Amino acid sequence: MVENQGVCDSCGQSSQGLKRISRGGKIKVCFCCNGWVRMSLRRTRRVPAWIRPDPNLSQEALVEVREKFLLMRDRHGRERWAERRMVFEMGFPYLGPLNDTAWGLALSVLELESFTTSNSLPNLRTADVTREFAKLEEIGVMHLPSNPQLRKQIAHLLRGDFGLSNKRRFVTTLFIWLIGEDEFLARDPEAWALSFQFLQEVVHDLGERASFIDDSIRVTGSSGNIYRISPRPHPPYYVVAREVEHQRQPICIDPLNAHTVVFGDILVNLVLALYDDQISARHIDTLARHVFGRRRPQHGGLYERNNIEHLWRRALGNMPPGEAPPAEALFQQWHRVVDRFQTNLADWPIEEEEEE
Ligand SMILES: [Zn+2]
Q1: Are 241 and 227 in contact (CB under 8 A)?
Q2: By the 8 A CB rule, do 274 and 280 touch?
Q3: How many whole angstroms from 293 Cα to the centroid of ligand 1?
Q4: In the beta sheet, which residues pair with residue 212?
Q5: At 328, is the secondary structure helix, strand, or coil?
Q6: In angstroms, what is the span from residue 269 Cα to ligand 1's centroid?
Q7: Between β-strands 14-21 and 226-231, what pairing exists: parallel, antiparallel or unpaired?
Q8: Within a domain: residue 52?
Q9: What is the 197 CA–ligand 1 centroid distance (Å)?
Q10: Is residue 194 located within the same domain as residue 253?
Q11: pLDDT averaged per 10 residues, the chain (length 356)
């Protein structure tokens, strides 16, 4: 369904030809955001509407809760929480507990408010507890505790027996466990909007060599190769392919530490890396094959560099505008961005070991 004019709910820009997505509560998106938002909502469709953050919580407070769980996962991963590697294997991120011990830790992290009531807590029968746990199972909580005390406590929480504020806190936590912050539903609206605005600016600035087409981004590299970045249901949520005649050859380019970056910014970095593919390919092995392949491109170096340093600087976010950095420093920064894209899934375990 197309509307003529309005503001895009993703990037906040006014635009013509907005598309309406009924899933997720009638969201209107522009042609740039449509594919990415639609795919994100498709990924999170199994999470019902009652699993939403406490409306009284600020964006900062939400980030804080998420950080706590990320920290627990990274410190005590093994069996208790899903490790990052596992997230890839499952095909979706899950930040919740994977055993009873982790459940205990999770509840302590919630810092539930002490709750006093003149009436004592209702005495829950096994059937009551089972009914509450069926809800958790349905929404995709991957481990349900077996300890009877723990089960009772959680059932009370879900029923609201410990008060509305504690219930909301718990539901907020469920939301955080089930929906990654790189999803549209869990986004920081301002940061998300800025990143998609920036993506549009970058694509516009690259002129004919970049465009939004069919819900994907088309980029022509300095080598003359043509690439497509399209939404994908599984991490890393995009797929890069090179267009060769009428075929698309997928290229595996995965981001490292992407959870520290807003999703639109990942796309910006990808667009810039592919635009400058002759340089990026020196650091991205899987791309190198396509850029420096058997056959040297006949028109190698055909495209002039369209002075994109200022875009890189903004993508990196830490260089004052108007101040030309020495080429070497710029290259270092650039290198860091390109390195964000890990090229091979097999490298993940090594990467994790290095971090410990
Ligand atoms: Zn938009």
Answers
A1: yes
A2: yes
A3: 36
A4: 217
A5: helix
A6: 18
A7: unpaired
A8: no
A9: 7
A10: yes
A11: 77 92 82 95 88 92 90 74 63 82 87 71 92 93 91 94 92 93 91 94 94 96 94 88 89 67 87 87 76 52 51 58 52 55 38 33
Q: Is-contact 187 193, C-beta < 8 A?
A: no
Residues, Cβ < 5 Å to ion ligand 1: 8, 10-11, 30, 33
Query: What spacing in Å lies between the alpha carbon of 217 and ligand 1's midpoint?
Result: 14
33 alpha carbon to ligand 1 midpoint, in Å? 4
Which pLDDT score is estimated for 304? 44
d(CA 276, CA 281): 8
CA distance 163 to 167: 6
On whether both 14 and 144 belong to a single domain, the answer is no
Q: Say yes or no: 215 and 154 in one domain.
A: no
Q: Which domain holds residue 20?
A: 2-43
HEC string for 142-201: CCCCCCHHHHHHHHHHHHCCCCHHHHHHHHHHHHHHHCCCCCHHHCCHHHHHHHHHHHHH
Say yes or no: 164 and 198 in one domain. Answer: no
Compute, in angstroms, the gap from residue 230 CA to the centroid of ligand 1.
Answer: 16
Q: 211 — phi, psi (to 5°)?
A: -160, 155
- 155 and 205 both lie in a single domain: no
207 three-class SS: helix
Q: Kindly give the distance from the C-alpha atom of residue 133 to the centroid of ligand 1, in angstroms, as a whole number.
A: 38
Starting at the earlier edge strand, list the strands of the sheet with 27-29: 2-7, 14-21, 27-29
